[in-house]
Amino acid sequence: MRSRTVARAALAVTASAALTLGLAGSASAATSTRTVTDAGTTYSLSLSAPDTAAAAGRTITVTGSGYNTSQGVYVGLCVVDGTPGANKPSPCLGGQDESGTTGASHWVNNTFGGLFANSSRFGTGGTFSVQIYVKAALDDGSVCGEDVTCAVVTRADHFDSEDRKYDVHVPITFQ
Questions:
Q1: How much is the pTM?
Q2: Exposure winner among 20, 38, 69, 150, fewest CB in 10 A?
Q3: What is the pLDDT along the chain (175 residues), one digit of tens a residue?
C-alpha cells in the first residue's frame, strides 16, 4: 500500500513539473496597437509577439495586421527609446542582415518581398506572420533589460527609413 502511495506522489510531482516546464517553455504573447494616418488613409496597426524569451536566444513568431502594403517594414528586435514613433528603434539585433544569415530580422515588402532571404510579401489587409531570432545580447555589446530597453518592432524599411509612422513596439524581457 505504501509503495502505491509513493508511486502516486511521484507521478503527481512529475506531472506538476512537466506542466510547469511546459508553461515556462512557452512564452505568452503580447499585442501592441497603433493607429496612423498616411496620405489620408487611416491604418490600424497590430503587432503580436512573445513578451518573454530565453536570454541565450530562440526563434519567435511575430504577426501583424493593418499595415500599409505600399510601405515596407522591417520586423526585428531593437533598442527602443520612448513611445512608438518618437525615436527610430536602433540598434537592432543582426544589424542590416542582407545575407539573411542571422535570421534576426525580416523584411515585409510587396515589391521585393520573397525575392531575398528573410523577406516576404504582405497578406490581405496588410497582414504578415514571420519568424525572427531574438536574444538578450546585441551585436554592439549591450544587453536587453540590463543596459537598454528592447522590443520586437516594426519600422519603415530602407525606402523611407526616417518615417516613424509604422513603428510599433512589443516589449520583451529575457530570462
A1: 0.82
A2: 20
A3: 444 443 444 434 333 333 333 333 445 789 999 999 999 999 999 999 999 999 999 999 999 999 999 999 999 999 999 999 999 999 999 776 666 778 999 999 999 999 999 999 999 999 999 999 999 999 899 999 999 999 999 999 999 999 999 999 999 999 9
